[in-house]
Every structure is written in structure tokens, then in C-alpha cells.
TrEMBL record:
InterPro entries: 6-phosphogluconolactonase_DevB (IPR005900), 6PGL (IPR039104), Glc/Gal-6P_isomerase (IPR006148), NagB/RpiA_transferase-like (IPR037171). Its EC number is 3.1.1.31. Pathway: Carbohydrate degradation; pentose phosphate pathway; D-ribulose 5-phosphate from D-glucose 6-phosphate (oxidative stage): step 2/3. This is 6-phosphogluconolactonase. Belongs to the glucosamine/galactosamine-6-phosphate isomerase family. 6-phosphogluconolactonase subfamily. Keywords: Hydrolase. SUPFAM superfamilies: NagB/RpiA/CoA transferase-like (SSF100950). One of its GO terms (biological process) is pentose-phosphate shunt. The keyword Hydrolase applies.
Length: 258
């Protein structure tokens, strides 16, 4: 692990959700290009909630090399893949059904394991191990990009305030059966995985996010789940927010330049 302290988050505040969406698409395309130039593939993890909709700027974008993407879920609800609660179902409806991505490049939970959450979670971890590396104590996967949302309680992925999973240091994927946000059964990437990514981006839009954004970013010492996302050097954390979500922030934002 790096001994360099994590870089402070870079906050980009946009005049409207539309400008955010097109800037986010440019950002993702740039991250994709850097990754493909270096190693011929692009590894990305997506969340549910409002996030998939914010990726609409990628639809019809010819710079996106969909066949080089390897997509994982930052968190997933333990339900069938075509269930209305499924993040995969949501991402498919909002994005994957509209772009030429090979199905094999979308790494879903194994729908045959829904009745055994521990096995399902371990199998998803194996899926990551197949993609990234052998798992050993010193090694965590390095995603090129992880896209996250933040809930009104400060949760992100399926890492909820006060939950024992906040302390998980070994597993790459963990499960919870008592999520305060329904549905209760979920799997999630753990902090060691999120915090070893090259880039992590939080996306938050609308006045409903203003209060929690200020708590997460202006008072990180409170240790809310979203405040614990601090990628190790040289990883970098970004926030893509609109003016309404940024309304109560005291920390400064920076202009978006590619
Ligand atoms: O599976 C989930 O529930 C999501 O991945 C979750 O972590 C989401 O990103 C936040 O709850 C924010 O949700 P909104 O974007 O809908 O506010």
C-alpha cells in the first residue's frame, strides 16, 4: 500500500444535470482511452439508484469501445436479474439495451445462487479474481473507474452507516442481509476494493442531495460511509454534482477540464 496520503477529492459542480451528463460522458471516455491504451481493456463498476440514468451521454457516442469494457456492479440486490429491484436490470434498461456491448462483458451475480447469499457473494468475488488477479493479502483489484451514488443517510454502494461491513479489510465482495434501504439482501464491493481504484466518481444531482453532500464533504470526520471513500495514491476521487446538490457545500469546487 502507498504511504502517500490520499489526494483530496476534486469537486466539479455543473450548472445543470444536462451539462453534468455530457461532461461525465467525456470523463468516462477519457478514462476508457487511458485504460485501453495501457492494457487493452477497461474495467468499470456501476451502482444503481439514479446513476445509470446519468450515463445517457454514452449512448450513441462513437468514442466508446464497448467491446473493451468489463462491467461489474459496485453493489447488487440479491434478486433475479430481471427483477425490478435489480441494479443489472436497471442498468440494462437505462444503458446496456441501448448500446452495442457484448453480454459476456457485463459481469452479473450468478442468478442460480440466489438462495445462498454467502455462496453468491463468494462467487462474485471469484468473478473479480478471474478478471483482476489471484487474491492474496497484499493485493486488491484496481478498477479503472468506479461510479457511485450517495443516499440521504450517507450510504454508498451497499455500505450503510454504522454497519459492520464498514470495517471489512479482507474480502473483495461482501453481503448484507439487513440493508436499511430495501431490498434487504445485497452484495457490495468493500472499501479495500473501492479505495484501490484508479478513479472513483460520485454523482449527485438535485436539491435533495444538498444536505448530505455538505455532511459528507464538509465534515468527513463524521465518518459517514461516503466520506470513507478515499482512494489510495495515485487513485483519485471526483464528485460530479449539479448546482442544486452543491448549494450547501463549503469546500470549493473546481472547473471541469478534460
Ligand atoms: O443499489 C443501490 O441502492 C445503489 O447502488 C445505491 O448505493 C445508490 O447509489 C444510492 O442509494 C443513491 O441512490 P440515488 O442515486 O437513487 O439517490
Amino acid at each position: 500500500m502507498s504511504h502517500h496520503p490520499p489526494n483530496p477529492p476534486v469537486i466539479h459542480s455543473f450548472a445543470s444535470p444536462e451539462v453534468l451528463t455530457s461532461s461525465l460522458a467525456s470523463f468516462v471516455v477519457k478514462a476508457q482511452k487511458e485504460a485501453i491504451d495501457k492494457k487493452g481493456r477497461f474495467t468499470i463498476a456501476l451502482s444503481g439508484g439514479s446513476l445509470p440514468k446519468q450515463l445517457s451521454g454514452l449512448i450513441g457516442n462513437h468514442a466508446v469501445k464497448w467491446d473493451m469494457w468489463q462491467v461489474f456492479y459496485a453493489d447488487e440486490r440479491v434478486v433475479p436479474l430481471d427483477h425490478p429491484d435489480s441494479n443489472h436490470n436497471l442498468c440494462t434498461a437505462e444503458l446496456f439495451s441501448k448500446v452495442p456491448i457484448p453480454t459476456a462483458n457485463i459481469r452479473t451475480i450468478d442468478p442460480t445462487l440466489l438462495s445462498d447469499i454467502e455462496e453468491l457473494s463468494d462467487a462474485y468475488e471469484q468473478e473479480l479474481i478471474r478478471e483482476f488477479a489471484q487474491k492474496d493479502a497484499a493485493r486488491f483489484p484496481v478498477f479503472d473507474l468506479i461510479l457511485l451514488g450517495v443516499g440521504p443517510d450517507g450510504h454508498t454502494a451497499s455500505l450503510f452507516p454504522g454497519h459492520e461491513l464498514l470495517a471489512e479489510e479482507d474480502r473483495w465482495v461482501a453481503y448484507i442481509e439487513d440493508s436499511p434501504k430495501p431490498p434487504p439482501k445485497r452484495i457490495t464491493l468493500t472499501y479495500p476494493v473501492i479505495n484501490h481504484a484508479s478513479r472513483v466518481v460520485f454523482v449527485a444531482v438535485g436539491e435533495g442531495k444538498a444536505e448530505i453532500l455538505s455532511e459528507v464533504l464538509d465534515s468527513p470526520e463524521k465518518g459517514l460511509p461516503a466520506s470513507r471513500v478515499k482512494p489510495v495514491h495515485p487513485g483519485q476521487l471526483f464528485w460530479f454534482v449539479d448546482e442544486k446538490a452543491a448549494a450547501k457545500l463549503r469546500v470549493p469546487s473546481q472547473d471541469f477540464k478534460l
